[in-house]
Every structure is written in C-alpha cells, then in structure tokens.
C-alpha cells in the first residue's frame, strides 16, 4: 500500500528524472515500426489531408511530442503536397529538446505542461503517443484534451489503465473503464489505446491525489508514473 502523503504533486513530478528526462518520444518518427501510425493505429497524414480537403484549415495538436521529429516530417510532407498552408501543427512537450535546424512552415513547437498549458483555439486532431505514462493527473489530461477538440475532432492516445490507482494502491479497474466508455471514450485494453470522437466538456468522478514516479517499468519496458485517485460520489 502507498500512503498518499508520499505521492508527488505536479510540480515535484515534473522535476523528476523519470519525467523530465524521458526519452520515450525523443526520436520517434511519423511512420515505420516505431512511428505514430503504428503506436496509435491511425494514419495521421490521411486524417489531416482528408479533413483539409473537406473543410479547409485543419489544426493538429500533439501532446508530449518529444523532439517534434514526427511533426516536422508531417509538415514537410504536407508542404510537398501543397497542403501545408491549410494545416497547422502544434507540438507541446515539457522539455524543449526539439529538432535542430529550421522549423517547417505550419509547425509550432511549445514548451509546457499538459496539465497547465492553455491553447488558443480548438483542434481537429489531438494525439499523445506514450506521453500519458509520464503525466501525473492522467484523467485530468484526458478531460482537458477532450475540451480542446473541435466538434467533430478526434483524440487518440496510448493509455495504460493499470497505471491509474486508488489511494490504497489497487488499480481503478473496470469502474474506471466503464466510466470512460460512458463518457464517449473508446478504450482498447489489449492495445492500451484510448480515443474519442467529438469535443465537449466531460467530468470524470475522481479526485486526483498525486503520483508515484518510482512505479518502475510499465508494458513499454520504460520507467513510468502511476497516478492515484479517490473515486467521488460513493
């Protein structure tokens, strides 16, 4: 059992070596065996170009973007297809170890926290590739991301439900996954993915208590963070 008095708050967690020095996404590319498409089960370029063809301007936000390599690749591909002017790409990461050299037109890389940063508008696509493993308030991040979606926008992320725990250290389990589905999320337990189509305000009935940066490796083999919550309304 983990006593909640030992859990880290967001400020302490973001200074943790496990979080601040995370190498999970530093050199991840857009495609290939370690790319965004494989990790999310989503063809990013098809999603962007199809939306652009239908509605004109499209905005993509990538949370915990690492170096931004995948986003830079996407921006250059879009420019080659004469779609770059219609797609705006924003990458957010806690550490500013971004790709060296000039940033392609249409791409903006921002240093900030998923739990504090506030966007200047809504997005048609929001992704987070293995980034939630290092966020303290994971459920809060899901809530915020959904609120930033356009009406028909798509959110897609890697999500390990076993890293969400009650105060006594036991997994939040089926009650949490049932609540997520009730509020419009699609949870793929086998592939450890979560998605939601369409924006809107949601409220998950959990109070965040803090995080444990000493949880050890998760299913990726990399050290990750467990997040602790108190269920509300019971």
Name the descriptors.
234 residues; alpha/beta; seven-stranded mixed sheet; three-stranded mixed sheet
Would you write up a description of this structure?
This protein is of the alpha/beta class and 234 residues long. It has helices spanning 10-14, 17-20, 36-40, 44-55, 69-80, 138-147, 173-182, and strands at residues 58-63, 87-93, 107-111, 123-128, 149-158, 164-166, 186-188, 193-197, 206-212, 226-231. The chain has a 7-stranded mixed β-sheet.
Tell me the layout of helices and strands.
Elements: H1 10-14, H2 17-20, H3 36-40, H4 44-55, E1 58-63, H5 69-80, E2 87-93, E3 107-111, E4 123-128, H6 138-147, E5 149-158, E6 164-166, H7 173-182, E7 186-188, E8 193-197, E9 206-212, E10 226-231
Parallel strand pairs: 1-2, 1-4, 2-3, 4-5, 6-10
Antiparallel strand pairs: 5-8, 7-8, 9-10
Task: Characterize this entry briefly.
The chain is an alpha/beta fold. It has helices at residues 10-14, 17-20, 36-40, 44-55, 69-80, 138-147, 173-182, and strands spanning 58-63, 87-93, 107-111, 123-128, 149-158, 164-166, 186-188, 193-197, 206-212, 226-231. It has a single domain (4-231), classed as 3-Layer(aba) Sandwich (Rossmann fold), CATH 3.40.50.
Helix amount, in percent? 10-25%
Named CATH architecture? 3-Layer(aba) Sandwich
Largest β-sheet summary: 7 strands, mixed
Uncertain parts:
none
Strand content: 15-25%
Distance between the amino and carboxyl termini:
21 Å
Number of helices: 7
């Amino acid at each position: 059992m983990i006593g909640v008095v030992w859990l880290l708050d967001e400020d302490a967690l973001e200074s943790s070596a496990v979080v601040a020095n995370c190498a999970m996404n530093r050199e991840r590319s857009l495609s290939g065996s370690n790319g965004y498409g494989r990790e999310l089960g989503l063809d990013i370029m098809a999603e962007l170009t199809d939306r652009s063809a239908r509605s004109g301007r499209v905005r993509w936000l990538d949370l915990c973007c690492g170096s931004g390599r995948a986003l830079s690749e996407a921006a250059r591909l879009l420019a080659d297809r004469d779609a770059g002017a219609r797609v705006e790409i924003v990458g957010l990461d806690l550490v500013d170890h971004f790709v060296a050299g000039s940033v392609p037109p249409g791409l903006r890389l921002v240093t900030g926290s998923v739990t504090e940063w506030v966007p200047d508008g809504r997005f048609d696509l929001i992704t987070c590739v293995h980034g939630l493993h290092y966020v303290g308030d994971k459920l809060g991040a899901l809530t915020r991301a959904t609120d930033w979606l356009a009406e028909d926008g798509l959110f897609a992320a890697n999500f390990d439900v076993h890293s969400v725990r009650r105060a006594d250290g036991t997994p939040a389990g089926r009650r949490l996954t049932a609540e997520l589905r009730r509020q419009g999320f699609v949870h793929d337990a086998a592939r450890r993915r979560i998605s939601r189509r369409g924006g809107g305000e949601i409220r998950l009935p959990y109070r965040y208590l803090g995080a444990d940066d000493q949880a050890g490796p998760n299913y990726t083999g990399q050290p990750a963070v467990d997040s602790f919550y108190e269920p509300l309304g019971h």
